[in-house]
Amino acid sequence: MVEKIKARIMDYGKIKRAIQRMTTEIIERNRNLKNLVIVGIRTRGIYLGKRISKLIKELEKRDIPVGVLDITLYRDDFSESEAQHMVKKTEINFSVAKKDVLLVDDVLFTGRTIRAAMDSLIDLGRPKTIQLLVLIDRGHRELPIRADYVGKFLPTSKREVVQVQLKEIDKIDEVLITEPPGMK
Amino acid sequence: MKLLLKNGRVIDPSSGTDGKLDILIEKGKIVDIKARIESKGAKIIDASRLVVAPGFIDMHVHLREPGQEHKETIATGAAAAAKGGFTSIACMPNTDPVNDNRGLTEYILSEAKKKAVVNIFPIASITKGQRGEELTDMADLVDAGAVAFSDDGQSVESSQIMRRALEYSKPLNTLIIEHCEDKNLSNEGVMHEGYYSYLFGLSGIPASSEEIMVVRDIILAQEAEANIHIAHLSVKGAVDIVRNAKKKKIKVTAEVTPHHLFLTDSCLENYDTSLKVNPPLRSKEDVQALIQAVKEGIVDVFATDHAPHTQDEKDVEFDKAPFGINGIETAVSLLLDRLVSKNIISLKRFIKMISTTPSLILGLENKGKICVGADADLTILNLNKEIVVDVSTFKSISRNNPFQGWKLKGTPAMTIVGGKIVYPFFSSKSL
Amino acid sequence: MAFKHKHLLGIQALTPSEIITVLDTAESFYEISTREVKKVPILRGKTIINLFFEPSTRTRSSFELAAKRLSADIVNFNQQTSSAVKGESLKDTILTLEAMNPDAIIIRHSCSGVPHFTTTFCQSHIINAGDGSHEHPTQALLDAFTIRQEKKNFKDLKVTIVGDILHSRVARSNIFLLRKLGARVVLVGPPPLLPLEMKKFGVDIGFNLDRALEGADVIMMLRIQMERQQKNFFPSIREYRNLYSLTEKRFRRAKKKAIIMHPGPINRGVEISADMADSAKSVILKQVENGIAVRMAVLYLLLGGKKREAFA
Q1: Per-residue pLDDT of chain B (431 residues; tens, 9 = 90+)
Q2: Distance between CA A38 and CA B257 in Å, rounded?
Q3: Which residues contact A149 (CB under 8 A, 6 or more apart)?
Q4: Which structural domain, as residue segments, surrounds residue A126?
Q5: Which of A101, B201, C10, C228 could form a disulfide with C233 if both were Cys (CB 3.0 to 4.6 A apart)?
Q6: Residue A57 near residue A178, CB atoms below 8 Å
Q7: Which of C28, C287, C268 shows the shortest CA–CA distance to C141?
Q8: How far apart are CA C174 and CA B236, in angstroms?
Q9: Hey, do C16-136+289-311 and C137-284 end up sharing a CATH topology, with the first three levels equal?
């Protein structure tokens, strides 16, 4: 299965600057940083969330906790997909009740993942607000969902795949557009 | 009406005949056997490339009539036997009511005369109602036509009663057949006790439950100087006991069923109730010992223990399913494929064990042999034809046969009873 | 990683990696039961039937809670309320239930092999909740989950299983599972309840509890059924207690950090002394708690993410 790389959209520097810009926006919009918590959606949302938390610490000297959300059990496309998803742990060691929750994911596409994530969050407690941060918004929404913070708007065709790679697990920071094999 | 079998390979163990011969049949008897027979007006059957054997005799069959006609009747059991290559069958007395009196025996014989396409020989029970308490009127039953006595399905639990039965049978020139099982040991068992019963979590029937009864009966038979026939031998230990008894010239004979020769306890892994049988399917070691016993001649007879049960009765929890395998239509092909074509025993030996010897053990006159004057009961075999077992083609009412789908080489091609072709099922006018 | 079974009939059919998959999945589900909202929507719209032909409180409730925490609808049928008492055959009972279009049927029956038999005519996923003396796979899985919480690695463990091994489905499933994961298993009990041929399961067999406990990491006590005594599997409860009851004195022979397990219900003062059952070494209640996470994992792995047609 060789995927064809069509374009390299972001590199280390571009990703870094996008995260810095979004962090500044977060600080501007959340005057009460004490009430902010970050919840990263498995898998790459976790590392983006951690980077943002670290940046806020550097800029504002505030510790923002980062939790991990596994949305497998809330997916709505579950019974339609043939492959079985391995359930991983949700690890949120703080209460989300009455908090301003910053939900972090790598790519915003149909919006179904975010819908599942919000359902899951609300089952864990009743957040005061939920804000959404994504590194890439590639369009093609199927639900009325939009992000509060976007690293880059990227118009794509539906069959293309947007791959965000992060150093923490992929050894490199980059964003690629690829096309699955067998497609024209 | 004359019937002329031409060019068949005639094998008759009783006379040692084995060669290409013609056989002429008239009025239900064999009237001539020669290399070339010409006979005007006789219906000619071309038996070239086929084996002509004395009619096969299954001395262990359950016909279920009277009482359980939904499982099998005398007529359907006989048709199944004919299809399976048997010309005579002996039926066990565990009907409802039990065949423990002249009336029942005569009823079975008269029904058989009217409806059965093969010869039926009733076996009466040793004790009244098979309850193990009082002996039946054995002399009266012999007079009515019972060929042997058995409480099959269980042993005669009381050693005293068994001893009396053996003693009493002697001057009657009849035979006691014992299903050897010490119920105290087999208890609630549903399969052979051993590794697999522990693995499957099913209650076990230990080998000792059979061995103890085989030993007891042989000791009692020796004491009474009577004949004892051990039904469906299934364990190595019992084989050894019979071997020793034969060495000592004790008058013991034994039978083995195809399922005990070709299936083991490990086959029960899917809890398939068509494999639930008593005695149970035993271990691989037991099966090896049984095959060795067949080779050595320790086992005298092949019998099927044909035990029909309906699908509904078998479609239940393993513990609750009735014991029994419907085997009369698959026995001959199984034995030909697994023993004869694999050269474990010779064809002649096979015929001896399924025709000659059973007729001698049951004292059936003019049966189990091919000679002038003998009854024209013949089984014709096609050794080269391959069949696939398909229970849906059974003549038996029931279908509880575990060999479904087995590919087997060798099959009965024609069954002739009293000079009449009873299988394949032509209309009688074509004769 | 994957778990490609339609049914869970026994541990015997599972590979070591499938067992680990169930345990890992159960880890993820464990946390759900600690939440305020103890429910996730993953099996929303699925129907599960709890079909119990034998009295059981803990296994039935555990499956019921597991199903409910996954948002499945679950219906309980037990012998008292089903048609089984009216002379209906088992097959007819199950076919009737299946006509109601369940996705899974959880079966407990006193006859070994009933779940296997059911799969021959049933389209639903079948989960064995204990069949006769055969298997009780979810019990072994929850036991393994509990052992893993305490001990991490199965390879170096000595697990001593004590009691009526012959009739115990819990023992069988645990033996199969522990051997697959490489633990050393020692069986001990009265000889009539512990056939030597069971050695072929890859276990050691002993009749002396003191010796069998020597150096044990895990002690699994089995419930002794009083009716066995009537069939002379052992002479008397008194004799059984003297020889095979886990007491504090005996426990000292095991490793210091050994844990005590029991599938319940306990006969206090018979197979286990009250103080041992309640001691800090006992993980008996932990087993009950873990049962829900493990059963959630089993239901998820069988019912989640696959179309029914995939098996047609």
Answers
A1: 899 999 999 999 999 999 999 999 999 999 999 999 998 899 999 999 999 999 999 999 999 999 999 999 999 999 999 999 999 999 999 999 999 999 999 999 999 999 999 999 999 999 999 999 999 999 999 999 999 999 999 999 999 999 999 999 999 999 999 999 999 999 999 999 999 999 999 999 999 999 999 999 999 999 999 999 999 999 999 999 999 999 999 999 999 999 999 999 999 999 999 999 999 999 999 999 999 999 999 999 999 999 999 999 999 999 999 999 999 999 999 999 999 999 999 999 999 999 999 999 999 999 999 999 999 999 999 999 999 999 999 999 999 999 999 999 999 999 999 999 999 965 443 33
A2: 75
A3: A22, A25, A26, A131, A132, A133, A134
A4: 12-156
A5: C228
A6: no
A7: C287
A8: 33
A9: yes
Q: Are B413 and B382 in contact (CB under 8 A)?
A: yes
Burial letters B240-254, b for 16+ CB under 10 A, else e: ebbbebbeeebbbbb
Instruction: Please give the distance of CA B385 from its chain centroid, rounded to a whole number.
Output: 23
Residue C312 touches chain A, beta carbons under 8 Å? no
Q: Is residue B305 flagged as an active site residue?
A: yes
Given the residues B22, B100, B286, B305, select the one marked as catalytic: B305
Our answer on whether B and A touch (3+ beta-carbon pairs < 8 Å) is no
Contact C132 B316 (CB under 8 A): no
**Which numeric CATH code is attached to C16-136+289-311?**
3.40.50.1370
Contact C238, C231 (CB under 8 A): no
**CATH number for position A16:** 3.40.50.2020
Residues facing C160 on adjacent strands: C186, C219
Sign of CA dihedral B14, B20, B24, B25: positive
Neighbours of chain A (3+ CB pairs under 8 A): C
| Architecture of the domain whose range is C137-284 | 3-Layer(aba) Sandwich (3.40)
The model's pTM is 0.91
CB proximity under 8 Å: A 85-144 to C: 85-91, 119-120, 123-125
Give the fold, CATH level 3, of B2-52+375-384+408-430.
Answer: Urease, subunit C; domain 1 (2.30.40)
Domain B54-362, CATH homologous superfamily name and number: Metal-dependent hydrolases (3.20.20.140)
Domain total for chain A? 1
Nearest residue to A35 via CA among A88, A98, A82, A92 = A98
Contacts of residue B68, Cβ cutoff 8 Å, sequence gap at least 6: B95, B96
- What are the extents of the domains in chain C? 16-136+289-311, 137-284
> What is the number of alpha carbons within 13 Å of residue C112 lying toward its C-beta?
28
Inside any domain, residue A6: no
Three-class secondary structure of residue A153 per DSSP: strand
Sequence-ordered list of residues with C-beta below 8 angstroms from that of B117, at least 6 positions apart, any chain: B78, B79, B81, B82, B417, B422, B423
Structural domain contains residue A173: no
A182 within domain boundaries:
no
**From CA B4, how far away is CA A84, in angstroms rounded?**
71
Smallest CA–CA distance, residue A25 to chain C, in Å, is 32
Task: Kindly give, in sequence order, each residue whose CB lies less than 8 Å from that of residue C98, ignoring residues fewer than 6 positions away.
Answer: C105, C122, C123, C124
Show me where the domains of chain B are located: 2-52+375-384+408-430, 54-362
pLDDT (tens place) for every residue of chain A, 184 residues total: 567 888 999 999 999 999 999 999 999 999 889 999 999 999 999 999 999 999 999 999 999 999 999 998 888 765 544 456 678 888 899 999 999 999 999 999 999 999 999 999 998 989 999 999 999 999 999 999 999 999 999 999 988 999 999 999 999 999 999 988 765 4
Q: Say how far apart CA B180 and CA B203 lie, in whole Å.
A: 18
- List CB contacts (< 8 A) between C31 and chain A: 89-91
Structure tokens at A83: 């492959």
Q: Which of A8, A56, A138, A116 is nearest to A48 (CA)?
A: A56
In chain B, the residue whose alpha carbon lies closest to the alpha carbon of C168 is B201
